[in-house]
Write a structure and sequence with these properties.
The chain contains five helices and no strands. By secondary structure, it is mainly α.
Amino acid sequence: MNRARRPPLLHPLALVFERAVDSLGTALSPDTTRHYRGTVRNFLSYLGAAHPEVNSLDPLRREPHLLGWMSRLRSQSPPLVTASYINRLIALRAVFTELLRNSPGLFKQDEFESKRFRLGT
């Protein structure tokens, strides 16, 4: 299926996240890579609208940024089915893990592993 191309996302973090998805995509199917790109686009769109002051990875926190995005996903209409919601969380977590692995200076190691960045409890 040939999908229409979307205009590039204009967010200061778009290139950083794009590189992480490109790195992950080498071992993934094209459909999975497209899912990761869509998840990143959704997260950065939320971040740009709800938290325009976030223009680097340093100020990103579990609360309010990640939890706010998760809340928005849960409240959209029509609602996402649980499996789709979980798939997006897993995809974003993989992207954050890839960011840490390939760009160790972007996060402090202990901050990424702390409760602030865990998507679970």
